[in-house]
Amino acid sequence: MHNLTNEQKYFFDTIPKLFHKWMQSNKCLSLACKNSNYNYKLNLIQQGFKLLPSMSNVIHSDNGLYFIRNVLIHINNQPSIYGVTILPSKTYDKYESTLNTLGNNPIGEKLLFITPNTVKHPHYYKTIGRHDVEFDCFLQKICPKQETLYGRQTMYNLNSFPLLLTEIFLPMIPIYPTNAYS
To answer: Where would I find the beta strands (DSSP E) of the chain?
Structure first.
């Protein structure tokens, strides 16, 4: 493992090895799948604005209004990654045309990894239990017997406009492709 804190090393010591490379990757996950010939498909679950005053300690919005995009990524026809993107309204306003035309396209390829002056902060790794807010009704339908899932949150600043990406890795995910960027 590379440059992990003691807390992060402990986290990775306690989770299945299947998730390690996926969670530690700093590359665009959709491109990793496509470059390895994995069958990749993104389904937009929902997107729109929500009033979330409780998010202000994580990602600030002047009016408490956030644009939220929920997606489910299938790899080799299996639900593999659940993604939630949260943007304050000012970030949405700046990138509105791109966001409104994403549809079933990955935000990484269309915005995060191509926007100049993007700053990607370190991943925050998390174990997600059934009681956590991230383990929403949608995830409970996909993983009805799963008590614990594993995820990461990454804050991006796109030309100083913040965006929070949460990725939850599902038990059906395949092994991280060894030829993802060869």
So the answer is: 40-51, 65-75, 78-88, 118-120, 124-129, 148-158, 161-169
What pLDDT, on a 0 to 100 scale, did the predictor assign at position 95? 95
Contacts of residue 96, defined as CB under 8 A and 6 or more positions apart, other chains included, come to none
Q: What angle do CA 164, 168, 171 make, to 5 degrees?
A: 170
CATH architecture of 6-169: 3-Layer(aba) Sandwich (3.40)
Domain ranges across the chain? 6-169
Distance separating alpha carbons of residues 79 and 42, to the nearest angstrom: 10
CA 59, CA 52: separation in Å to the nearest integer? 10
d(CA 2, CA 101): 36
Mean of all residue pLDDT scores within the chain: 89
